[in-house]
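Inverse folding, one chain.
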């Protein structure tokens, strides 16, 4: 399995970064590169740093790290939506290379810390010194320009920014976005040429995605006046848990580069406090996104609600109820974690075990929750979850995602972060330590 994972990463390597897959995702994706760097650290540590540094070379002047960095060697039309759709070249402060204007969960500081911890060296320390100010700028962008609700949490302006594109968590806010599925006739979707349409977001989903991007693009991707003009504004538990984990990781990195860790610890504590105050629902015992358009929590119970378990300073009462949710019939199997977590509540009427983020199991969010279990002294559950994750790849290979009950591989084969995080799981000792 280690050879399979290493060969998958090697086959997806593209001169200075790793593509998620050769078929469906031919460019560089932001949070994919973060997870992939964690895997490279186990087999080719120098590539872990090249992966992160190539991504951050495309960082915008305001600190945002774009969710797609386009490969200029590929022809126009090789992917939808491509660089001509985003038109980043027209925006002041964008890099010279074409990118999208959105972001993704800021997993990068955590990836840098883990890459260094897995393979410390003088070269790794030098790379960390180069990356540190860029990681700080990324966090500053999210904490200031994206603090749309004014409560200390970052707001996502598109479902793609959450990483869980078509999660049922976004159904209610998306329903308020005016769009007609017929708009997609003007575009050519590449995803359904490489994966079954029943496994992918619908045309109506995509029409709304396009409408939201158009709104943000026509405003020059600026964030100052989002409440007055933008149709999708949500505080996401996973996104903000990633921001909090990033601050904890930066507090570990700071002494290595001669910086003060205290501001990072303070910001991490503030993010955790805001998450509990704003997004924790005591009625469900889990975390729910908040739609800033309505001011209400979104009731769908998805894997997003388990993500704050990654935070080492999550208060014990919330950590306990989130673990109970993870072990419930909605996500786990009693107390054994014998199956990987699905992306949506198994018992919900809109659970779809084949369709992207509406039910299938994904290696990255399972890895994320497993790290949280370790950090909150539930190594017993983490061990069961790790076995079930390794079992997915043993059965189906390094697929993009998996049927949550049968383990059948779905989406793209030879998927980058599945291979990378498998390497991380296989490298764990008998008594794995929390990541932060």
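Residues assigned per position:
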């Amino acid at each position: 399995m280690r050879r399979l994972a290493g060969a998958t990463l090697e086959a997806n390597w593209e001169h200075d970064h790793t593509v998620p897959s050769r078929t469906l995702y031919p460019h560089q994706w932001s949070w994919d590169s973060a997870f992939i760097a964690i895997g490279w650290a186990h087999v080719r540590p120098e590539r872990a740093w090249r992966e992160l540094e190539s991504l951050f070379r495309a960082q915008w002047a305001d600190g945002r790290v774009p969710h797609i960095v386009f490969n200029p060697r590929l022809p126009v039309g090789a992917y939808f939506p491509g660089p001509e759709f985003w038109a980043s070249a027209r925006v002041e402060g964008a890099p010279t290379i074409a990118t999208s204007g959105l972001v993704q969960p800021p997993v990068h500081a955590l990836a840098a810390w883990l890459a260094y911890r897995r393979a410390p060296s003088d070269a790794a320390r030098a790379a960390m010194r180069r990356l540190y100010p860029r990681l700080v700028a990324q966090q500053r962008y999210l904490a200031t320009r994206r603090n749309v609700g004014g409560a200390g949490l970052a707001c996502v302006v598109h479902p793609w920014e959450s990483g869980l594109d078509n999660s049922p968590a976004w159904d209610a806010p998306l329903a308020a976005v005016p769009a007609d599925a017929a708009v997609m006739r003007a575009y050519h979707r590449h995803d359904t040429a490489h994966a079954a349409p029943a496994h992918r977001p619908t045309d109506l989903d995509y029409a709304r995605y396009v409408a939201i991007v158009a709104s943000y693009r026509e405003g020059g991707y600026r964030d100052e006046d989002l409440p007055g003009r933008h149709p999708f504004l949500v505080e996401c538990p996973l996104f903000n848990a990633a921001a909090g984990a990033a601050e904890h990781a930066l507090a570990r990195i700071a002494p290595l580069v001669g910086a003060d860790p205290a501001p990072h610890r303070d910001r991490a504590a503030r993010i955790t406090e805001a998450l509990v105050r704003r997004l924790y629902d005591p009625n469900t015992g889990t975390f729910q996104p908040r739609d800033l358009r309505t001011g209400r929590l979104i009731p769908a119970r998805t894997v997003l609600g388990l993500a704050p378990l990654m935070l080492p300073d999550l208060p014990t009462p919330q950590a306990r109820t989130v673990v109970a949710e993870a072990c419930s019939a909605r996500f786990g199997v009693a107390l054994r974690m014998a199956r990987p977590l699905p992306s949506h509540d198994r018992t919900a009427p809109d659970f779809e075990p084949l369709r992207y983020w509406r039910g299938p199991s994904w290696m990255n969010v399972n890895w994320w929750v497993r790290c949280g279990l370790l950090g909150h002294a539930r190594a017993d559950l983490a061990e069961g979850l790790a076995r079930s994750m390794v079992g997915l790849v043993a059965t189906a290979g390094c697929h993009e995602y998996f049927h949550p009950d049968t383990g059948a591989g779905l989406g793209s084969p030879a998927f980058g972060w599945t291979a990378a995080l498998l390497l991380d799981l296989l490298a764990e000792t008998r008594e794995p330590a929390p990541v932060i």
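Residues 2-426 form a domain with the Glycosyltransferase fold (CATH 1.50.10.10). The mean pLDDT is 94.
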